[in-house]
Design brief:
heterodimer, A: about 350 residues, B: about 160 residues, mainly beta, 4-stranded mixed sheet
Chain lengths: ~350, ~160
């Protein structure tokens, strides 16, 4: 019985004594490096380039090159690379090239006549939307003027005359709905017209010879440019309204012996350099905007850096996990096939 | 709806701003009246004279453009648009030269050009001076650098007097 007790105790002792020894054979020794750290937190743990990038972020210096790119230098390998995060991403054009055409009526002059403006007319315009971003535009109108200032000594008349403008707008909200736009634009305008100044009275008080005369009808041409800033909002379905504020200046005009015209159709009076427009418009969609795919979104991301050479990756490859005793080789030698 | 209201309000503000910003007013004259300055022929410098009367030949009531009672260095010489020339007489009031025989007469020949200047300044005549003639009792010479008389406020004519 005593002998049996010794056998049981010896068995228990060996069981306890050898159990930890067996566990030690299975222990995995963690290797702390950039790759394994990344592996534990990121699904891209197998992407060597990504791992290298993380390491480089900690072990690099950088400078800015002539093109304004930030160039990082690996202080260990001497390798240089451009920070692709800082490079401009490719922009997606949601809206097709021929996105829509819009026709509008400019009601600025009728509105301004309510404020006492002595000239004006009617204007229509058409605009082609390219990617909802660039918008070539043509504007046609007829303008006339009749002005007898209260404190003036003349009557100015300019019969109905045509004018045209051509230009382009740039919509800042090009990837947003075309119903709402905020844009800048440039225009070149031209008009050929007549004007006359009648009932001119001069008070030559010293000689006591008051004079009345007319400046007969004269033909004139004028060209001008406009810088436009404006916005449009949807009113109902395809109907929209918008306004612009314009800075304009005369580029060229006829040289006339009897003076320059006060009113130029399409330009307005030459008194000021600021004017505007108020438009009601109707938009006709031509093509539907494309639906974004994952590929489209990926194409906007900065380009992925190509994998580097072996000398670089060699030092940062995750080390083999040791299994078994610390003296065991990491990888068993393959048997030679050569005889 | 809020965006539409914003557009309307901003458009009204733009209209008010534009209508209030575009009034310049007439910064020149509302007539083309040449301005003559007095100069010493010897030194060429501007002078102020108190002992002369200037009037237009044929002016109603012989009204004076410049009275000897006041000293002046410049005088306006209004032209006559209905005529192609105008003459101005200079009468010296100093005792020893107060005789009409010492009067000087300056005659300008010109073409009057109807001209529309601007909405604020209005319409008027410009004068393209073609010839200047003067007697030379005390006047040495009359000079115009720019023969076109406009409504710009500048001295168009220089009258040089013998000052010795």
């Amino acid at each position: 019985m005593k002998h049996l007790l010794h056998i049981v105790l010896a068995t228990l002792f060996f069981a306890i004594a050898f159990a930890p020894s067996s566990s030690a054979q299975r222990r995995i020794t963690p290797v702390k490096n950039a790759a394994t750290t990344t592996m534990s937190v990121n699904e891209l743990s197998n992407d060597t380039a990504y791992i290298n990038a993380n390491r480089r972020a900690r072990m690099t210096t950088h400078y800015t090159d002539d093109q304004g790119n930030i160039v990082y230098v690996d202080t260990i390998t001497g390798e240089e690379w451009v920070d692709s995060v800082k490079t401009k991403a490719k922009k997606i054009m949601i809206y097709p090239l021929l996105e829509s055409v819009t026709f509008g009526v400019n009601i600025w002059d009728p509105v301004m006549r309510l404020f006492g403006q002595k000239y004006g007319g009617a204007e229509v315009w058409g605009e082609l939307s390219l990617h909802n971003r660039f918008k070539p535009i043509v504007e046609f109108g007829l303008g006339t003027a009749s002005n007898t200032p209260d404190d003036g000594n003349f009557t100015y008349k300019s019969p109905l005359a045509p004018y045209a403008r051509i230009g382009v707008n740039y919509n800042f909200l090009y990837n947003s709905t075309p119903d709402y736009q905020f844009f800048v634009g440039l225009r070149y305008g031209f008009s050929s017209f007549n004007f006359e100044v009648t009932d001119v009275t001069t008070d030559n008080s010293y000689w006591n010879e008051p004079e009345t005369f007319n400046i007969p009808s004269q033909r004139a041409n004028a060209g001008f440019f406009e810088f436009v800033l404006g916005l449009k909002v949807q009113l109902y379905k395809n109907f929209s309204a918008g306004w612009t504020i314009k800075y304009h200046s005369i580029l060229h005009e006829s040289k006339l012996e009897n003076g320059s015209p006060w009113y130029i159709p399409g330009y307005g009076s030459r008194n000021g350099s600021i004017t505007g427009s108020i438009s009601l418009m109707y938009r006709i969609p031509l093509n539907k905007p494309k639906e974004l795919t994952l590929k489209d979104i990926e194409s906007t991301l900065p380009p992925v850096e190509p994998k580097t050479d072996d000398s670089d990756t060699g030092s940062t490859q995750p080390q083999a996990v040791e299994v078994g005793t610390t003296n065991s080789p990491a990888q068993p030698e393959q048997p030679s096939t050569e005889q | 709806m809020g965006k539409i209201l914003t557009v309307i309000l901003s458009a009204i503000l733009a209209v008010v701003a534009i209508t209030s910003c575009n009034t310049a007013g007439c910064l020149d004259n509302q007539n083309s009246v040449p301005l003559a300055g007095f100069y010493a022929s010897e030194s060429g410098s501007a002078i102020t004279i108190s002992a002369l009367n200037i009037f237009g030949v044929g002016a109603p009531n012989d009204s004076l453009l410049l009275d000897s009672a006041s000293s002046a260095s410049q005088v306006y010489l209004p032209f006559r648009p209905a005529y192609q020339s105008v003459a101005f007489c200079i009468h010296y009031t100093d005792d020893d030269i107060s005789s009409p025989a010492f009067n000087d007469t300056i005659t300008f020949s010109y073409n009057a050009i109807p001209y529309f200047a601007s909405e604020e300044c209005g319409a008027m005549y410009y004068y393209d001076v073609t010839d200047i003639h003067t007697t030379t009792h005390l006047v040495d010479s009359v000079v115009m650098d720019n023969r076109l008389v406009t409504n710009t406020e500048i001295e168009n004519i220089r009258i040089y007097f013998r000052t010795e």
